[in-house]
Write a structure and sequence with these properties.
Layout (H helix, E strand, L loop, with lengths): L1 E4 L5 E4 L6 E2 L3 E2 L14 E2 L16 E5 L3 H6 L8 H9 L7 E4 L7 E2 L13 E2 L2 H14 L2 E6 L6 H14 L5 E6 L12 E3 L4 E3 L8 H12 L7 E6 L2 H4 L2 H7 L3 E8 L2 E2 L13 H4 L2 H5 L6 H9 L3 E7 L2 E2 L11 H16 L3 E5 L9 E6 L2 E6 L1 H12 L5 E2 L10 E7 L5 E7 L6 E6 L7 E7 L10 E2 L20 E3 L5 E6 L3 E7 L4
Parallel strand pairs: 3-28, 4-29, 5-25, 6-7, 6-19, 7-10, 8-9, 10-11, 11-14, 14-15, 15-17, 16-18, 17-19
Antiparallel strand pairs: 1-2, 12-13, 20-21, 22-23, 23-24, 24-30, 25-29, 26-27, 26-28, 26-30
Helix pairs in contact: 11-12
């Protein structure tokens, strides 16, 4: 038996010899057991009846700020950073990735339009060169874009000008939706800019601005955008999300509901707060499995209206992340568990927000004398394992809840019948032997491991024995692949999970 990855990222099992066969527990690190096989301390039963919505193509996407696009791509539309292109393609092989360009810079960006006054809150200008670069990025990745439109300027002329610039400069066929504004619930709370000698705070809206006022504005501006699909409300507030029925009533053209989630926050929290950025808090189940608590009715509402529900801004710690947490290996395990939780909740996709100067950036890129190189951070590996375990069309399988709080388990069945069982060990110190009862006609499975020196590691991460070079010029994993054949022992697969690790067991469909 051997493992082959298809263009769509699905694993298929082919008859052939593999390097390693074990009847006893296989360590996540890929090293043989040092003692005789032992009984598992955890049993994970996997059901046979898939449930929930299939994983949508382009489920894992990216979120970039407007000025960050050219930081990553370079300024030459004819020579887009090829490492960036490959890193994007890795997470959506054979698919069209969804790239969101927005965030805080949405309302700090403009396209100069007649009779529209630029305010001190505008820091970025949409230029023909920027449009050409962004178009090239979309073309080379095969991506479709969610593009932010400036709402703070409160100008229909400006919004229409931005939309038209995107259509003509990038191409309507590459635009998935226009997202009007960014986190409007903060417009009366966070200053837009400071003016005058006394640096007086200027807010984009007055105290009377609320959801009803926002809905009226969106309805008015939407009429100026023609038939273009709209995304919104681009909110991080569940209170605002709960007003979604009113948005659909006022604007039936809404085709993408967008919501923002960060489990932890660096600003405004102190040690001891449950949302304070620490590895312990990041790996708490509430940080992954409760991110969408209370959102189920609105996800269902979006689907009833024929719209998709997308977390188009997601990462570990708000306010640009926390060093030692967001850039540590713990973030890879958090991301892996979070992505499966999003599938279970019925979400149609997520966009991981990455900023060049942030602690939660998934990679760094640099042009060194005309040669692009990148450094890939641990969190990216978690996204990559999810991509392998949940190709498009996959559906979740029911799994029993492990009795240990350290271990989390997920399972999927692909459209071709391949089953992936993913086991995550969040403990920093405790190893576990997990038993997965084998189906009646079980054959050998294949085991791939995600490991690092420890939860706080910022380097030394491997996936199936492979890793990205410290300065990768290809954006592809390197080194010998370590995929282990695992035969059932007494009717079950035994997997020994090292502390701070994850493993994926791949099983062929029944003959």
């Amino acid at each position: 038996m051997r493992l082959k990855r298809t263009a769509a990222g699905a694993a298929v099992l082919l008859s052939a010899a593999v390097a390693v066969t074990r009847a006893g527990p296989v360590h996540a690190a890929g090293t043989p057991p040092t003692a005789a096989p032992v009984s598992p301390d955890i049993i994970v039963n996997v059901g046979s009846a898939p449930f929930g919505r299939p994983v949508a193509p382009g489920f894992v996407g990216w979120s970039f700020e407007f000025p960050a696009v050219r930081h990553y791509t370079g300024s030459n539309p004819g020579a887009i950073n090829p490492v960036l292109v490959q890193l994007i393609r890795n997470l959506s092989p054979g698919q069209s990735p969804v790239l969101r360009i927005g965030g805080n810079s949405t309302d700090a960006t403009w396209f100069p339009a007649p009779h529209v006054k630029r305010t001190p809150g505008i820091h970025n200008t949409i230029t023909p060169s920027w449009l050409a670069t962004t178009k090239a990025l979309a073309q080379q990745t095969g991506g479709r874009l969610i593009l932010g439109l400036n709402l703070k300027l409160d100008s229909g002329v400006e919004m229409a000008a931005e939309a038209q610039a995107f259509r003509t400069g990038i191409g309507a066929q590459r635009i998935a939706a226009f997202e009007i504004g960014n986190e409007p619930e903060l417009y009366t709370i966070a200053p837009w800019y400071y003016a005058g000698p006394g640096q007086k705070a200027v807010y984009p809206r007055g105290r009377g601005f609320n959801f009803a006022a926002y809905a009226r504005e969106v309805t008015g501006f939407a009429k100026l955008l023609g038939s273009s699909p709209l995304a919104g409300p681009a909110t991080g507030s569940q209170v605002w999300l709960s007003k979604l029925p009113k948005v659909f009533a006022a604007e039936p053209g809404l085709r993408m509901v967008t919501y923002h989630r960060y489990p932890l926050i660096r600003c405004f929290t102190n040690p001891g707060d449950p949302q304070y950025p620490s590895i312990v808090n990041l790996l708490a189940p509430v940080s992954s499995r409760a991110l969408l608590q209370g959102a189920a009715p609105y996800i269902a509402l979006a689907h009833r209206h024929g719209a998709v529900f997308r977390l188009d801004e997601l990462n570990s710690v708000a306010c640009k992340g926390q060093w030692g947490v967001s850039n540590a290996f713990a973030s890879a395990l958090w991301a892996l568990d979070t992505l499966f939780s999003m599938v279970q909740a019925g979400v149609d996709g997520v966009n991981f927000h990455t900023l060049p100067q942030s602690a939660y950036r998934l990679f760094t890129t640099q042009d060194v004398n005309g040669r692009w190189v990148a450094g890939v951070n641990p969190e990216y590996y978690g996204l990559l394992m999810f991509t392998l375990a949940a190709p498009p069309g996959s559906r979740l399988l029911p799994v029993s809840t492990p009795k240990s709080p350290d271990v989390r388990a997920w399972a999927t069945r692909s459209s071709t019948g391949v089953v992936h069982v993913v086991l995550i060990n969040d403990s920093a110190t405790t190893a576990h032997v997990v038993g997965v009862p084998a189906p009646g006609s079980a054959s050998a499975g294949l085991l791939e491991s995600l490991i690092a020196p420890d939860l706080s590691a910022t380097s030394g991460v491997t996936l199936a024995g492979q890793s990205f070079a410290a300065e990768t010029s290809t954006g592809e994993l390197e080194g010998p692949q370590q995929v282990l054949q695992l035969t059932p022992a007494e009717g079950q697969y035994l997997v020994s999970l090292a502390p701070a690790s994850a493993a994926m067991l791949t099983l062929a469909p029944p003959s």
